[in-house]
Automatic annotation (TrEMBL):
<dbReference type="Pfam" id="PF11697">
    <property type="entry name" value="DUF3293"/>
</dbReference>
<protein>
    <submittedName>
        <fullName>DUF3293 domain-containing protein</fullName>
    </submittedName>
</protein>
<dbReference type="InterPro" id="IPR021710">
    <property type="entry name" value="DUF3293"/>
</dbReference>
Length: 136
């Protein structure tokens, strides 16, 4: 992964929809906000998408939606998973619909991210620091 793409991942605002009116932001290398810590408790969590495989905006909107539905279906199959809508917003104006999921471990998230040709995702455990997980 080149430096520009890595910098873009690190500069992204990772926003999680907690309820109808409240959103919380995740920043890489910082702890989760209190509102997300309350959702996570002592479990693992991930911020993941199936949008724009390999960080390339070459897939059609319909293709991105289909991939995202597949990811959501797979996450719903995880026993006890808690899933919230989310979005990643880049500094240059791009955005990707995403999912914030509580429950699945890194091995599961790695598998799902690779299946959807993602280069990285954000993850953590309990109230630990949010980490960028590179898959390339």
């Amino acid at each position: 992964m080149d430096k520009a793409l890595l910098d873009a991942f690190r500069a992204t605002d990772y926003l999680v929809c907690i309820d109808d009116v409240e959103w919380a932001g995740i920043r890489i290398d910082q702890p989760l906000p209190a509102s997300l810590q309350a959702l996570v408790g002592v479990r693992s969590w991930g911020f993941i998408t199936a949008w724009n495989a390999r960080a390339q905006a070459t897939r059609t909107p319909a293709g991105n939606l289909a991939a995202q539905r597949e990811l959501l279906t797979a996450l719903r199959a995880w026993p006890g998973a808690v899933i919230h809508p989310a979005i990643g917003i880049g500094r240059t104006g791009w955005s990707e619909p995403s999912l914030f999921v509580v429950g699945p471990d890194i091995a599961t998230l790695d598998t799902l991210a690779r299946q959807h040709e993602q280069l990285a995702y954000v993850h953590g455990h309990a109230n630990s620091t949010a980490r960028l997980r590179l898959l390339e």
